[in-house]
C-alpha cells in the first residue's frame, strides 16, 4: 500500500495519464529545435550505470499511478540513440508497466528504428500538418523530403506500431484544415493529435474560421472520416499549459510541465522545479513530498502569471482558440 501523503501533486495526476518526458544531456546542448538557452548540463546521464537510478526515481515520481507514459525526444543525430534504447529495454526488463513513447524526427525513422519500435511496443509520434503545397509554402521543405515523410507515415500505419500524428492548426493554414485532414486520412492515418498552435497571433476572425472548420470536421468524422480518432481527446478539459506531465530536463531537474522549455522561463526555472534527480533517493523523495498543496498551487500560479506577463492579450486570444478545440472534443 502506498503510504505517501496525499498532496496536490497526487491530486493533479490522479485521474489523468501521467507523462514523464526525459531529455538527455546532448538534447539540451546540441539540439536546435526549441528556443531554450542551451548549456552543458554536467553529463547527467553519464555513466550508463545511472539508468537504474533514473528509472527508480521516475517510479517515485509516478508512484501509485500505473497508467503511465515515459516519453523521449529520440533519434536525432545528437540525442544518444543507444542510450535511450538502453533505458527503454532496461525498463521493460525490470517489468515497469510504462508506455514507452518516442517523439522523433521522421527523417531518422529508418527500418532499424521501426523494427525496434515494433518489437518493443514503442509508440511513435511524428508531425505532419498538411499536404504538399502547404508544406512548401510554410516550411520551405523540398518536395522530395515531403514525399519521404508521407512514405514514412504510410509505412508506420501499415505496421503493428502504435502511433500518433501531431496535426497543428495555424492561423495561416486554418482555411485548408479539412483538405489537410483529408490528405492524411488518405495516407491511412487514423490517430491524430490535433493541436491549436499557442503563443502566436490568432485574430478574432481567425478564431471564427477555426470554429467553423472544427464544426465541419465534427460532422465529417461521422461519415467521410469514419474511424478517425484523436489522441488528445481525453485531455480536452485540462488547462492547456498545465496538464499531467513532468519534464526531466537534461540537467537532472524535474519540472511540472513541458512549458518550462519555452525560452521566457530561463530566469524562473529555479522557482518552479519539483525535484533534483542528482540527489540520492532519500533526498529526492523529500523533494517530491515537499511539492505539497501550497507549493504546488504556487508553482501552477507562477507559470500562469509568467505566461500572462509575457504574452498579455495574445495569450487570451490563444486561450480562445484552444477553447474552440475543447468545444470540438465535447461535440464528438
UniProtKB/TrEMBL annotation:
Q: GO terms for molecular function, please?
A: catalytic activity; iron-sulfur cluster binding; metal ion binding
Task: List UniProt keywords, sorted A-Z.
Answer: Iron, Iron-sulfur, Metal-binding, S-adenosyl-L-methionine
Q: Where does the record place the Radical SAM core domain?
A: 21-114
Coiled coil region boundaries: none
Q: Does the keyword Lipid metabolism apply?
A: no
Task: Check the record and name the Pfam families matching this protein.
Answer: Radical_SAM
Whether Protein biosynthesis counts among this entry's keywords is no
In terms of domain of life, where is this protein from? Bacteria
Provide the protein name: Radical SAM core domain-containing protein
From which organism does this entry originate? uncultured bacterium
